[in-house]
Amino acid sequence: MTEFNAYIVVIATSVIIILSYLFNVVSKKTNIPSVLLLIILGVGLKWASESFGILTGEWLMNILEILGIVGLTMIVLEAALDLELSKDKWPIIWKSFSVALVALIIGTVASAYVIQYFYIDDFFKATVYAVPLSIMSSAIVIPSVGALDEHKKEFMVYEATFSDILGIMLFYFLIGNADTTDTHLIVWDVVSNILITITLSVVISYALVLVFQKLDTQVKLFLLISVLLLLYSIGKLFHLSSLIIILIFGLVLNNHKMFFIGPLKKMLSSPSVNSILNNFRLVTMETAFVVRTFFFVIFGMTITIASLFNLRVAIVSLILLGIVYVLRFVLLKIFVQKNILPQLFIAPRGLITILLFFGIPAEMQEPNFNSGVLLFMILITSIAMTLALVLSGNKIEPYEDFASNYWQAIDKEIDKIEPEDKNHSERNEDDKKREII
Question: Which pTM value belongs to this model?
Answer without folding.
Answer: 0.74
